[in-house]
Each structure stands twice: as structure tokens, then as C-alpha cells.
Amino acid sequence: MIRFLSVCVAASVVLTGCVPPTALNAHVTVSGGGSIATVTDTRIVLPNTPMKLNFVTAVSPTCGPSADPAPEVSVITPPAHGTVNIVNDYGYPTFPISSAFYHCDTVKVLGQLVVYTPATNYAGPDYTSVKLYFSNGKEVISDINFNVGG
Q1: Tens place of pLDDT for every residue, the chain, 150 residues?
Q2: Angle (CA) 121 122 123, round 5°
Q3: How many domains are contained in the chain?
Q4: How many CA atoms lie within 13 A of 149 on its CB side?
Q5: 98 burial class (0-12, 13-18, 19+ CB within 10 angstroms)?
Q6: For the chain, what percentages of helix, strand and coil (3-state, to nearest 5) are there?
Q7: pTM of structure
Q8: Which of 7, 100, 103, 134 has its Cβ near the most Cβ atoms within 10 Å?
Q9: CATH code (residue 118)
Q10: CA angle 105–111–115, rounded 5-degree value
């Protein structure tokens, strides 16, 4: 199962579902198969507060940079009442305990951080769509609905 909440890519695995970090009221549905999977996610966001949507990285079995490239991240549909920023940053992967890469969860690695920031003083619904494109041609499209202000 693929979880866009915190997708991690391991050198020996095409798509690795990762356990999401604590997510307030995150409801995730995964559909599709083959080369494209669609993830639908609902989040409650505090007004005027950025929310980490994802940390995307690729690591080797030794937790260093992978020979396989990390997926490309792009915004398909920008939010109407906020922004989504994709920045290179260091962070921690979140592989599930059952993964051979779980030991990498304590190693800070370079990746892409995806952050949603609601418009100043906005409260209400918002939506964005973000795509991960993998070098093997597979794609994960994440449709994220926000309830800003609960």
C-alpha cells in the first residue's frame, strides 16, 4: 500500500509505503493500480499554520543516498486558499517497522519537503493535487482535501 503522507523510496523497492507521522484526522484511501495510483487524503489544518504533507526521499540499504533517484514531486492543482511549497531539506524517513529500511528512520537524509500553508486568516475548505513521478514510470497522485480551522 502506498501512503503519500510520508512516501519513502528504497533502492531495492519500487514503491514503499511508509507509516505516516502523526497526522491529525488524516483519512487516506488508495485506489488504482498498474503505473498510476491515486491517494485521497483529508486533513484538518490550523489557520495560519503550515502543515507538512510529505517528505520524499530515496535511500540505500546503508541509509545513504540511493543510486535510484527520488521521485519527482509536482503540484498538479494548486490550492485556491493557500500555497504548496516543495523544498529540498533534510528530514527523517518513516519506513514501517516491518521494512528492511526501518533502521534508516533515525538517520537525517536529504529529500523534498512538501508543505501546505493556508492563506492568512483563511478558514474553510481547500484542495490540492500533488504528483510523485518515479523513474520507472510509475506515478502516485495525491488528492488532498483540507478543512482549515477544523
Answers
A1: 233 334 444 433 333 334 333 333 333 444 455 677 788 888 999 999 999 888 888 888 888 888 788 888 999 999 999 999 999 999 888 888 888 888 988 999 888 889 999 999 999 999 999 998 888 788 888 899 999 997
A2: 120
A3: 1
A4: 10
A5: exposed
A6: 5, 50, 45
A7: 0.76
A8: 7
A9: 2.60.40
A10: 100
Q: Which domain holds residue 63?
A: 4-148
- The single-letter code of the amino acid at 119 is A
What grid cell was written down for 112? 523534498
End-to-end alpha carbon distance in the chain: 28
Give the span between the Cα atoms of 143 and 127, in whole angstroms: 7
Check the CA dihedral 141-142-145-149 and report its sign.
Answer: negative
Amino acid of residue 24:
L
CB atoms within 10 A of CB 23: 18
Query: How far, in whole angstroms, is CA 46 from its chain's centroid?
Result: 19
